[in-house]
Amino acid sequence: MKILVCISQVPDTTTKIAFSDNNSTFNTAGVTFIINPYDEWYALVRALELKESGAATTVNLVTVGKADAEPVIRKALALGGDEAIRIDADSTDPYVVAAQIAEYAKSEGYDLVLCGKESIDYNNGSTGAMLAELLDMNFIGFASSLSIEGGVATVKREIEGGEETDTCALPLVVSCQKGMAEARIPNMRGIMAARTKPLKVVPAAAISPLTAIVSYDLPPAKTGVKLIDPNNMDELVELLHTQAKVI
């Protein structure tokens, strides 16, 4: 079984975010980038577990990005991927990302495609579903458990008020969330091996985006707290009626 894991590059959550060009461009100066946690901790690690158990023979990684994304995908290789593919495109549009991956993957014979449920930068959560449609594969989203036996996947996912268990024949696209696997840290052997593992650069296909970012806005600055004397409940009730915001 061949597995393809989608890897996206995102800003570290501790990074201070800034915008330029009249708030129309994300300013990457000084930004530290990491592997999207949902891709790394859940999709990639589960793929590696399937290979280690003998259920899979190959785990390849794919990312859509420019050369500055290569250190991130090298880290993913250090965790245990066999080969990385970088599609030489840069877009914030999830359709373009999905279409670029589909254009590459459709002739490679992958049995299982795994991705995180969403990326932590734009939180669209739609790339996996679009990728499945473009590859003409079945799709199961927001999975917290995945096992493969006899060419059939058993997938568990959380639903409102409970848990759903689905079975589906391969090939299949699955988006992964918490519970799918336990996070790993690359060891020195993996880091050294990643330097020589193949990283193939594929030219971007001519695909037009469906969306464009008009502008960015930072969330409003946090205001100070207001302390109320516990003996003055009338003031608290008044403030709750007049100043508290319902979210």
Q: According to CATH, what is the topology? A: Rossmann fold
Helix/strand/pairing category: alpha/beta
Structural domain tally:
1
Helix content: 25-40%
Beta content comes to: 25-35%
The SSE order reads EEEEEHEHEHEHEEEEHEH
Measured distance between first and last alpha carbons: 46 Å
Describe the structure.
This protein is an alpha/beta fold and 247 residues long. The protein has one domain (2-219): Rossmann fold (3-Layer(aba) Sandwich). It is built from 6 helices and 13 strands. It has helices at residues 37-52, 70-79, 94-105, 127-135, 188-194, 233-242; strands at residues 2-6, 9-11, 19-20, 25-26, 33-35, 58-64, 83-88, 112-116, 138-149, 152-159, 162-169, 172-176, 199-203. Strands 11-10-9-12-8-1-6-7-13 form a 9-stranded mixed beta sheet, sandwiched between helices. A two-stranded antiparallel ribbon has the order 2-5. Strand 9 and strand 10 form a beta hairpin. Helix 2 (70-79) crosses helix 5 (188-194) and helix 3 runs parallel beside helix 4 (127-135). It is globular, with a radius of gyration of 21 Å.
List keywords for this structure.
247 residues, alpha/beta, Rossmann fold, 26% helix
Short synopsis of the structure:
With 247 residues, the protein is α/β, with parallel strands linked by helices.
